[in-house]
Amino acid sequence: MSISISGANKVFLFQGDSITDGNRDRGNDLNHILGHGYAYIVGSKLGNELAELRPVFHNRGVSGDRISDLYARWNEDAIYLQPDVLSILVGVNDIWRTMMGDPGGITDRFERAYRHVLEETREVLPQTRLVLCEPFLLKVGAPAENWPEWLKILTHYQEVVRSLAEEFEAVHVPLQDVFEAAAARTDAVYWVWDGVHPTAAGHDLIAAEWLRIVGQSGILQG
Q1: Is there a contact between 39 and 84 (Cβ–Cβ < 8 Å)?
Q2: 14: which of 39, 46, 127, 214 fits an S-S bond (Cβ 3.0–4.6 Å)?
């Protein structure tokens, strides 16, 4: 897939939890600052194809984060970086805390906190283009033990993300159907080894869908 983009030094920021984190380096090691997941794959492809424009890629995913945790660090890890394109993938830890009876999951702040993040971003960075990725799970590992309840919350969160994407004119990247289709090809654990965290092949699925949807949206040319 050939992708074009206008403007030099466009800044891309990937935000989220462990799926985005990808064991990224917290220093200046250029071999590892994007982690070892979908953000790395997307950054590699766009960085290669758009080298003459020297795009800049940041990964600020943090393992274990909920959407409220993202909001708590939004100034330092989002606003300060002045991204032209801001991609968010979050939600599974919100579900996890609820399902495990963790004190952090007593009340469901997913939609409220997500809205706060987007409202503040729109206020401070009105020109930033938003990409909201759908949270996903597969029926293996911990989610398989009480799949109907996990799926109930997951489906609600997916609807929230879809609705917020429409409200804030963001690009919506659906991922659940992509993983379910992949799981029909071979075992689910091949793609998401514990029901939550993608394997290398799973990260490639995310990256491919991100590049396809975002490429079609036209925001890379804006």
Answers
A1: no
A2: 39
Give 114-136 pLDDT, tens digit per residue: 999 999 999 999 999 999 999 99
Is the pTM value of this prediction over 0.85? Answer: yes
**Could you give phi then psi for residue 38, rounded to 5 degrees?**
-60, -35
Q: What is the pLDDT of residues 142-160, one digit of tens each?
A: 999 999 999 999 999 999 9
Q: Write phi, then psi, for 146 (nearest 5 degrees).
A: -145, 55
Q: What are residue 87's DSSP bridge partners? A: 14, 131
Distance CA 172, CA 163 (A): 9
CA 125 centroid distance within chain: 19
By C-alpha distance, which of 96, 37, 36 is closest to 66? 96
Q: Please report where in the chains the tokens 């600052």 appear, as a residue.
A: 33
Contact 85, 12 (CB under 8 A): yes
**Cα–Cα distance list, 110 to 143, 153, 172, 222 (Å):** 19, 11, 17, 30
* Structure-block tokens of residue 138: 């597969």
Alpha-carbon span 7 to 36, nearest angstrom: 27
How many residues are present in the chain?
A: 222
Question: What b-and-e string marks burial along 124-140, b requiring 16 or more CB atoms within 10 Å of the CB?
Answer: ebeebbbbbbbbbbbeb
Residues 75, 45: Cα–Cα separation, whole Å: 28
Q: What is the mean pLDDT of residues 12-21?
A: 97
